[in-house]
Amino acid sequence: MFRMCSSNLAFGELAALAAALSWTLVAVLYTSVGSRIGALAMSLIRIAIACALLMIYERITRGLWLPTDIGVRAWILLGTSGFVWFFLSDLCLLKAYLLIGPRLSLLIMSLTPPMAAALSWICVGDQLALVRWMGMAVTLGGVALVLLEQPNRTNRTDGPGAKGQSRRGILLALLAAALQAIAFLLSKAGVGVCGAMAATLIAMLGALLGHIVLVTLWRRWPAMVAATHDGQILLILTCAATIGPFIGVVLSMTALHYAPTGVVSTIIATMPILILPFSIFLYREKISLRAVVGAVVAIAGVALLSVPC
């Protein structure tokens, strides 16, 4: 029994690490097209492509375009999770980037794992051993150390109204972290009653609904359609959607099925560490000793999370 539980936990942790790697690759792909079509168009197109891929997969493997055999409760939980995670949280985080810059925003987002763990403990009694709390703290410390090392080029704090913008940016980043923690909890509750692919499709449909409503209210459909006319962008976004919202989210859902919410969200929070090799070899950035130490500390935290208890 103990071996089976340890094996399941290790499988969940490996799935979470693979999810973090996939989202890191997606970040590199998005960097190449984001400035050309805008964040909203990029987000909508990738979610739509992911939904199409997942529907095709469901049709091939189970003979259904949509997981209509899943109960209403699971649809509500997973659809709400996708709406909260891939729509609301991402929207708040994007605005925070503009107000306080990516460095501080991502640093605040490091609060997601302890928030998720606390919510999971309060709501569903998902207990974590002391060694796992230590692993979370060490991992987040390493992530914070690396993020603090990065220069903040987009933050502008001079001039009238700068303090108000800073406060709003911090609040939005905190809200994004809290929303993502809630989404993790909702996914954990919903993924247990259906397969990872079906759960991912429902979550993506929830996010797609949010995007459709927003684009309609903002009357941005002409810009969205225009963004699809560039074949190179569509190819890159298709690759990104396959790696991220398709493979990455499925891995995340699988991880949540086998491992505690706090552990999964902490491992996924190591993306700023995983992107360091891309920064060195693709963008020719010089990585300092402090950044290397932060990466080592984060890896040590992930190792603590994998200790059987």
Brief summary:
The chain is mainly α and 309 residues long. The chain is built from 14 helices and no strands. It has helices at residues 2-37, 39-62, 72-100, 102-109, 112-124, 130-149, 162-191, 196-218, 221-227, 231-258, 261-268, 271-274, 276-281, 289-305.
Keywords for this structure?
mainly alpha
What gyration radius follows from the Cα positions, in whole Å? 19 Å
Mean pLDDT: 81
Shape: globular
* N-to-C SSE string, H for helix and E for strand: HHHHHHHHHHHHHH
* Helix-strand makeup class: mainly alpha
Low-confidence stretches: 152-160
* First and last CA, distance: 13 Å
Would you kindly provide a written description of the structure presented here, covering whatever features stand out?
The chain is mostly helical. It has one domain. The protein is 82% helix and 0% strand. It has helices spanning 2-37, 39-62, 72-100, 102-109, 112-124, 130-149, 162-191, 196-218, 221-227, 231-258, 261-268, 271-274, 276-281, 289-305. The protein is globular.
